[in-house]
Amino acid sequence: MESRAIFEKLAGRFGDAASDYTEGGGTKDPFCKVKADRLVDVAAFLAGDPELGFDFLQCLTAVDWIKQAKLEMVYHVFSYPKRHSFVWKVDLPRDNPICPSVTTVWPTADWLEREQYDLFGVQFSGHPELKRLLMPDDWEGHPMRKDYKEAAEYRGMPTSRYSPLELLLAYDKANPQTEGQRPVARGKGGDEE
Question: Given this structure, which CATH class describes domain 3-149?
Answer without folding.
Answer: alpha beta
